[in-house]
Design brief:
about 375 residues; about 20% strand; four-stranded antiparallel β-sheet; alpha+beta
Length: about 375
């Protein structure tokens, strides 16, 4: 019995020492770290939408495929956009012709004024002769009165023609045809229709992997309809949601270790705290909590912390947005001031140049339409 008791005491002592050693090791190793398993891989999800109306006639990319910036991913028939472009070009030509006609009308009104002034001069001469002849009884008083009425009629007609001429001049004088307000408005409609026609080819704004393809051949899509998404896997970060009781020592610039469930605990990713979100998750919820209702229950909130990943780690072991992680931050490091942020917005996912040259060629089309429809004006000027 004594021997048995002695062995039990020895086993108990060994277990106690092992437990103390285990907890001592973990306290020493983890006391400078804060950890959370409420952390996920986050990345850019670039949603590609139709920018004009049309019917899908070709799909050039499938889910999981890698595409490059500028690649055509979906083609629309573009018939509606083409009809709108033709209509806009016809309207521009008609407006140019209307302005040419208005300009020519100014010359017509000027000639009409000259003709009526000549007629007025003749009638005035006749009136003088009629007045002299009336004294001798050769001309009746009625004829003299009719001549005076004719003079007033011609004077009114000249004033009316001058006013009409002034109105036409106010519309077309003082500005070249291609800079006329009505022409500028029509040119804008041509540019918009040209842009819609150009955008029948839906291109990738960034490089990445295709996901959530919704477009199907034959779909009649409207502008704004979602076609697919592009995920750039070279620009990912961790969003770790720490309890508010854990964030007192977290600062931007501190190092972090991330273990992803998909790869197990053996593989460790390295990261750096880039900044703390300026509010808890509940603050930005769709329906924020109203704690002034009287039904208050104290719950520790979580603050999202952005952690940048080492690009080499990402290259060696690619990740996908949404993966769960176990993330911990070394709070023993000094780091930067709390409100500092090292997050950058200078990657390819933040800007694209594929839309810069969409209007190439439209100005040449506009100039040709104006030149062809204003030829009548130039011919009249040469004469």
């Amino acid at each position: 019995m004594r021997k048995r008791n002695r062995r039990l005491k020895q086993v108990t002592l060994i277990i106690l020492l092992a437990s103390l050693g285990y907890f001592g090791y973990h306290w020493y190793a983890n006391r400078n770290w804060v950890a959370t398993d409420d952390a996920f891989v986050i990345g850019h999800l670039v949603t590609l939408k139709a920018q004009t109306e049309g019917t899908v006639v070709e799909i050039l990319a499938e889910n999981t495929q890698h595409v490059k910036k500028g690649d055509v991913l979906v083609r629309l028939d573009g018939n509606i956009a083409q009809i709108a472009l033709q209509q806009a070009e016809a309207e521009l030509g008609q407006i140019v012709r209307d302005i040419v006609t208005q300009t020519a009308k100014i010359d017509t009104l000027s000639q009409r004024i000259v003709a009526r002034q000549a007629a007025l001069t003749q009638v005035r001469h006749d009136l003088k002769r009629f007045i002299v002849a009336a004294r001798d009884g050769a001309v009746s008083d009625q004829q003299v009165q009719n001549t005076r009425d004719k003079i007033r009629e011609l004077e009114a007609a000249i004033q009316e023609t001058r006013a009409e001429k002034a109105g036409v001049e106010a519309q077309v004088k003082g500005v070249a045809i291609d800079h006329h307000p009505a022409v500028e408005k029509a040119k804008s409609r041509v540019r918009r229709a040209f842009l819609d026609y150009h955008r029948r080819n839906v291109v990738a704004p960034v490089s990445g992997y295709v996901a959530k393809r919704r477009a199907q051949v034959g779909d009649n899509v409207k502008a704004g309809a979602t076609l697919l998404a592009i995920v750039p896997l070279d620009d990912l970060w961790i969003e770790a949601n720490f309890l508010e009781t854990q964030i007192a020592g977290i600062r931007p610039g501190q190092s972090a270790e991330i273990r992803v469930d998909a790869y197990g605990s053996e593989l460790v990713y390295h990261g750096t705290v880039e900044g703390l979100n300026p509010g808890t998750g509940s603050t930005f919820a769709l329906l924020p909590t109203d704690n002034a209702t009287g039904n208050f229950i104290h719950i520790a909130e979580r603050v999202p912390v952005r952690i940048g990943l080492d690009p080499k780690d990402l290259q060696d072991n690619p990740l996908q947005p949404g993966l769960s992680t176990l993330t911990r931050i070394n709070i023993s490091e000094a780091g930067e001031p709390l409100l500092t942020s090292s997050a950058r917005a200078d990657g390819d996912a933040y800007r694209t140049s594929i839309y810069d040259n969409e209007l190439d060629g439209v100005e040449a089309r506009i100039e040709r339409i104006i030149a062809e429809n204003s030829a009548l004006f130039h011919q009249a000027g040469n004469k």
